[in-house]
Design brief:
- The complex is a heterotetramer, with 2 copies of chain A (326 residues) and 2 copies of chain B (368 residues).
- With 326 residues, chain A is of the alpha/beta class.
- Chain A has 2 domains: 182 residues, 3-Layer(aba) Sandwich (Rossmann fold), CATH 3.40.50; 127 residues, Rossmann fold (3-Layer(aba) Sandwich), CATH 3.40.50.920.
- Chain A has 12 helices and 14 strands.
- In chain A, the strands form 3 sheets. Chain A has a 7-stranded mixed β-sheet, with helices on both faces. Chain A has a 5-stranded mixed β-sheet with strand order 9-11-10-13-14, sandwiched between helices. Chain A has a two-stranded antiparallel ribbon with strand order 1-8.
- In chain A, helix 10 links the parallel strand 13 and strand 14.
- Chain A is globular and about 60 Å long.
- The N and C termini of chain A lie far apart (44 Å).
- Chain B has 368 residues and is α/β, with parallel strands linked by helices.
- Chain B has 11 helices and 7 strands.
- In chain B, the strands form 2 sheets. A 5-stranded parallel β-sheet of chain B has the order 1-2-3-7-6, with helices on both faces. A two-stranded antiparallel sheet of chain B has the order 4-5.
- In chain B, a hairpin with a 2-residue loop joins strand 4 and strand 5.
- In chain B, helix 1 packs across helix 3, helix 4 crosses helix 10 and helix 5 packs parallel to helix 6.
- Chain B is globular and about 75 Å long.
- The chains are: A alpha/beta (326), B alpha/beta (368).
- The complex binds thiamine diphosphate (TPP) (2 copies) and magnesium ion (2 copies).
- One thiamine diphosphate sits at the interface of chains D and A.
Chain lengths: 326, 368, 326, 368
């Protein structure tokens, strides 16, 4: 076991993928000499050369569009979008091309592209640097969307995403980049499929369904609740598309209560889909409606007030109270 | 914008009257027999096109995008392609597809609505049709970057080298993606030839709305050569494309070719050009028909004769007949088949949706 | 009363808006001489001139980006996106600029832009011409999203959208462009706010919640159900953002059953949000889970099989059966 | 890429040693007193910048994007603007903002996180800062199209005419939006001046990754003039910008100005330039400092003296002091206030969310 930050775990995962498969390429803005603004690709250009770790011109659509061409010719591009808020210029290429090439080809042409996107708030940043745009991609057929919450998952999931023959939008919870955790670099392979949810803390009174940066928040909330005698189960979804219905529904059937927690805007956020599925599949098992603790329906606000915008321990526990007292 | 004149800024090797003309930088190196083959391709491509248009009129296709008038641009450029070159079409490149060896019946699937654009006869070096304007230019640059990494660019063995040619229209030049493609291609010296068929219109919008100056000049601002060729002159188009592809294969980077031509028909079968252009304009371009000029040249030099043309007419009729029959015989896939075509690794949800859909359909078995 | 197709009603509404307010401008591809590929802007350039009805270069981001500039200077641009599938190149300008300028300006700068988008399937078209991308926009704070289902609503709603000081994404159900209906051109003003849902058919056994092209389908389903003694209420949402919660919840509380119907992909489609809200607000009033009848989670398929993709009478009635037999 | 040399392709009127030089097309028409005013602006702009950088170091700002080294580009161009011109900045135009009359304290709100970019002192003709690279160039074209419709372009009364100037970086030129802005501007002959500060880097990426040829040449391919100016020479920048703005105001369409300059500091306070560039390169540019060269010229001709500079130093200190104090005094808005700032007509849902949020906060009143 090695202790690594999530950023370093991602770096290690990328390095392993580059070393294992010569067709793997990285591309993005400032990922070469600089190693990316979060240093996730640090040292990789020096190690694998400029043909495999490519500093791209400043144009996200160009980055994704050329990645499509590379993937069509057998390469496995892993592209970095510098910040969540800068993925939109590439939206057309992602939604109308990356996600559809396989369908357009009658199911014959794989499109093994990984789009790495540091996402989420809580880092005191200016506009466009704290967004949670995952729902746009989870609504798009043909894409898969995943997000790790721990260094170990980051290390394995990035490798699994690169190995996948379907396009994967890989959201990295940037405010957890410097969180440390144990990673077993010697392990042969991941212990969980890329698209499986994980019960990160078992519990019996209610289920917290969450992902990415909010997993830590929910775990902390569950610890606190424990002290008050409340047993909360925390499910780290890991995959937002597809959703791991089996794990989600099994947990909620058991606890009878569900609270979805995410940073993204509430309306049509992942919580909406999860609530819709749960109420449909667990109609008689639910003791309370599925509640959602999410960002408000606002553009991400200035950083001095972001703490009020972001779900925190108290808001999660408040929802638990409401659910339990239904 | 005034009409381009033959000269250094407008490569023409065969004038509208069918006379061979000289150009300081380009010349034709092939034989008249090769040109007869080009004429055959152009006539067959046009026949495919008019037959597909007719099929649409009869309600057999939902839509068709005719190439009428652009045969020389397409055949001339496609015949400058050879292995391991790659071809990235837009949606009107039926003549290019023909040269790439695609069964014209396959082209109809998209337009008949029986499938997407993965045609059974599609060779590996021919990309799908693209319908979102300009997006494919970036794919082409990516493919050219792949060629660089595959080591098939700039080798001492010229025959082993390859490049990518990508097709798009005059309207497409306004899209951000096309300009980003220019930037990426220039930045990485990617072996890509940007082949712009300036057919004077983007649906109803005249070329001048997209650019006040000739389109080929766009390239210089990005740091690579642009050149304008008479797009109705198959000889010039082939010569210019050969030059550009050869240059790209050698590793000298991209070229923009503006093939100055005219869409003689409608934008698509849904379009009504009388709404936005004068019939006198159409007439003036009819006088520059790419097929007529080559035909009159080849007849004059005796490379072909009426018998040759008659034989071609029969071949053409047979092709049209085959196209018609092939169209009607196109299988309609089951809806269920699509659920497995979205992902390599199909998620549970889709399998469940497919099963529900099947069960639901089955519930009507008795009733229907 | 005049009988008009929806396309002509929109044309009349645009003409009225242009005549009423000199700051109103139209822009888009082929909207001038050609009058748009659906002829919705037919005759308007001839009447109002090329400075007010502008044929734009072929670039959707450019169309939206310049509209922002015009709106900043007091104009009221109404832009046309030629087909649903071509809005994505403008996604960045819509999501990061149009929707946020007001927020960025501390609430001082209005952004009165209308984005007209013909949307939906059922017209036998090729790829990218049959999409239902409304959820992307409804998930985006700062935008309003509406869609008319009848010529009369089309006529009034387009005028209301143009008069609104907030950006409105105006989805036009293209397969209903040629449906005819009565329009009262002499009426002084609309009889319903732009953001209100409308009960288009009252009923008591279950509520069908729908919008745009599916309103007709649901009405037909309700008529058929009537013959079998089932009384279905049909709610035309009209506004997808904001949702008219009051009308939605009131109806569902009354009937106890809700079925959301839309063409768009199910996962994270409007049905998800509506189901999530209903289960939360009507937990004890629901006699069955909220069901969704939507497009499958596929890219829009080739036209020969689109009928199987699109919700139709039978699929709606099948869901009604399932709801009623819960 | 080699360094540009003074000459027709590189307008310079004051060399790095502070000597006035001649140019065939451009000359300076103002007085030395005007230049002293420019020097004052540049020195104060730099002081604002270094003070903000210091505030960030002390943790008072989350981020700062320094203009260090770009003072001449910003002051020279901004001083060519007059009513009813419009100004569209990117995010580094603190010097332009200064000339537009914006209270420098206001600039800090975004970077301190106390607000967005609607600064109380923002004049109506100054657009907000934009952080998504390139997007603002299209806004500028739209604003210029508004000026055309407002009738303030190409009138016989030159003073009544206006144009729009928009700022962006070398990296931005690769974005589709910027190229689309060129296309729209050319197509509509919009009165817009594209002012590109080529500071040699887009974060770590050197200019040559975006374009292998000088950026000003991009414009010609779109059909309008491009010109390169010594961006560290305030006299040349002002002259060139005046010419371009005047041309645009007359209705002759867009111009692209490439101000060739250097970002002497970090990209932002989060950046570490030692990772990607040599200190020798930084040194060579320090020798071309825009402030030093103007100062030495003005001292030599006697337009200013040490007393003048001392007085300015005091003014500068006072400004810095005011900035510091203003920063610390910036009010933090309540979170609730934002719910009403999304829409003109706020939907129920947001009002409800605001009320819930308020009630929720209130529930802690006792506890906290
Ligand atoms: C992004 C996008 N916007 C709009 C359209 C609708 N559209 C289809 S073809 C066309 C005109 C294309 O003109 P041009 O590039 O000149 O090619 P041509 O059809 O003349 O060959 C338009 C606007 C589209 N397909 N994609
Ligand atoms: C669309 C987008 N992509 C990426 C970024 C991240 N980013 C911020 S500044 C910058 C470099 C900009 O370089 P340039 O245009 O030269 O301007 P400069 O900062 O040098 O003034 C990048 C990549 C962004 N803000 N927007
Ligand atoms: Mg065209
Ligand atoms: Mg720069």
């Amino acid at each position: 076991m090695t202790t690594l930050t999530m950023a370093k775990a991602l770096n290690a995962g990328l390095r392993k993928a580059l070393a294992a498969e010569p067709k793997v390429l990285l591309a993005g803005e400032d990922i070469g000499k600089l190693g990316g603004v979060f240093r996730v690709t640090e040292g990789l250009q020096a190690e694998f050369g400029r043909d495999r770790v490519i500093d791209s011109p400043l144009a996200e659509s160009g980055i994704l569009g050329t990645a499509v061409g590379l993937a069509l010719r057998g390469y496995r591009p892993v592209v970095e979008i510098q910040f969540d808020g800068f993925v939109y210029p590439a939206f057309d290429q992602i939604v109308s091309q990356v996600s559809r090439i396989r369908f357009r080809s009658g199911g014959t042409q794989p499109m093994p592209i990984v789009v790495r996107i540091p996402y989420g708030g809580g880092i005191g940043a200016i506009e466009h640097h704290s967004e949670s745009p995952e729902a746009y991609f989870a609504h798009t057929p043909g894409l898969k969307v995943v997000t790790p919450a721990s260094p170990s998952d980051a290390y394995w999931m990035i490798q699994q995403a690169i190995a996948a023959d379907d396009p994967v939008i890989f959201f990295e919870p940037k405010r957890r980049y410097h969180d440390k955790g144990e990673v077993d670099l010697d392990q042969q392979s991941a212990d969980l499929s890329l698209f499986s949810a994980r019960v990160v803390k078992p519990g019996t009174h209610a289920t917290l369904l969450t992902y990415g940066p909010m997993v830590r928040t929910c775990l902390e909330a569950a610890m606190l609740a424990e002290q008050e005698g409340r047993s909360l189960e925390v499910v780290d979804l890991r995959s937002l598309s597809p959703l791991d219905d089996a794990v989600i529904l099994e947990s909620v059937r058991r606890t009878g209560r569900a609270i979805v927690v995410h940073e993204a805007v509430g309306t049509l956020g992942l919580g909406a889909e999860i609530a819709a599925r749960i109420q449909q599949n667990c109609f008689y098992e639910l003791d309370a409606p599925v509640l959602r603790v999410t960002g408000y329906d606002l553009p991400y606000p200035p950083s001095k007030v972001e703490d009020a915008y972001l779900p925190d321990l108290d808001r999660v526990l408040d929802a638990v109270d409401r659910s339990l007292s239904w | 914008m005034t009409e381009p004149m033959p000269g250094p800024d407008f490569v023409q090797l065969l004038d509208p009257q069918g006379n061979r003309v000289e150009h300081p930088d380009f010349s034709y190196s092939g034989t008249d027999a090769d040109l007869a083959a080009d004429l055959r391709d152009m006539i067959l491509a046009r026949r495919i096109d008019t037959e597909a248009t007719a099929l649409q009129r009869k309600g057999e296709l939902g839509l068709w995008a005719p190439l009428l008038g652009q045969e020389a641009s397409q055949i001339g450029s496609a015949r400058a392609v050879r292995d391991p070159d790659l071809i990235v079409p837009s949606y009107r490149e039926h003549g290019v597809a023909w040269c790439a060896g695609i069964d014209p019946v396959d082209l109809l699937t998209t337009f008949r609505g029986t499938g997407m654009t993965d045609w059974p006869s599609r060779p590996e070096n021919f990309h799908f049709y693209s319908f979102v304007i300009g997006t494919q230019t970036l794919h082409a640059v990516g493919m050219a970057m792949a060629q660089q990494r595959d080591g098939v660019v700039g080798n001492s063995e010229p025959e082993a080298n390859g490049a990518t040619i990508v097709y798009f229209g005059d309207g497409a030049t306004s899209q951000g993606d096309v300009n980003e493609a220019f930037i990426f291609a220039a930045s990485f010296a990617a072996p890509v030839v940007f082949f712009c068929q300036n057919n004077q219109y983007a649906i109803s919008e005249p070329m001048v709305l997209q650019s006040k100056i000739p389109l080929y000049r766009r390239a210089a601002g990005f740091g690579f050569p642009g050149i304008r060729v008479d797009g109705n002159d198959v000889i010039a188009v082939r010569a210019v494309t050969q030059w550009a592809m050869e240059r790209a294969r050698r590793g000298e980077g991209p070229v923009l070719i503006e093939a100055y031509t005219y869409r003689m028909g409608a934008h698509t079968t849904s379009d009504d050009p009388t709404k936005y252009r004068a019939s006198t304009e159409e007439d003036s371009w009819r006088a520059k028909d790419p097929i007529e000029r080559l035909k009159s040249y080849l007849l004059r030099v005796g490379a072909i004769d009426t018998a040759w043309l008659d034989a071609l007419a029969s071949e053409s009729d047979a092709l049209a007949e085959r196209l018609r029959a092939g169209c009607l015989a196109l299988p309609v896939p089951t809806f269920e088949s699509f659920f497995g075509q979205v992902y390599v690794d199909t998620p549970e949800l889709l399998l469940r949706q497919r099963d529900e859909q099947l069960a639901y359909e089955a519930s009507f078995e008795g009733a229907r």
